[in-house]
Design goal:
By secondary structure, the protein is α/β, with parallel strands linked by helices. The chain has seven helices and five strands. The chain has a three-stranded parallel β-sheet with strand order 1-4-5, covered by helices on one side. Helix 7 links the parallel strand 4 and strand 5. The longest helix has 14 residues. The chain is elongated.
Length: about 140
């Protein structure tokens, strides 16, 4: 059987990285970052990035610049070092790999950084193939 696995938020806990990059971007545009819990409540509720930017006291004219900065920083090696595997991910991958073909699907843009991170986390070897897709929408933050 073929099994397709998402990376961010499924195998990897990205909360620390995501919030740190958000905070850097807010600081860059001289806004006031939401506290972590408030930020994640907004995200879970599906708030548009424009609303989150407004709540962060950043002028809406900086929305495009904010998204570009966020996109640049989110796959930076320093930012990626903040990701961590969820508990038991390696054991699950080992057990799945015994009987199935594993395919990693991600919206990451930088395949080289992705492969480096997967090797650092010691999970690269479990995947038969990796599909890197570019999102077709702007509201991915």
């Amino acid at each position: 059987m073929n099994i397709f696995l998402d990376l961010d938020g499924t195998l990897l806990n990205i909360r620390k990285k995501h919030y740190a990059v958000y905070k850097k971007c807010v600081d860059y545009f001289e806004g006031k970052p939401l506290i972590g819990g408030e930020y994640w409540r907004n995200k879970r509720n599906g708030e548009d990035i424009g609303i989150i930017i407004k709540k962060s006291q950043i002028n809406k004219r900086h929305k495009t610049g904010f998204i570009k900065k966020f996109t640049l920083l989110i796959e930076d090696p320093v930012s990626l070092s903040l990701d961590s595997l969820f508990p038991n991910v390696k054991d699950i991958l080992i057990n799945l790999k015994r009987k199935h073909l594993l395919y990693l699907v991600t919206l990451r843009k930088n395949k080289e950084s992705l492969i480096y991170q997967l090797k650092q986390l010691d999970i690269y070897k479990y995947f038969n193939a990796i599909s890197v897709e570019i999102p077709l929408y702007e509201n991915f933050l």
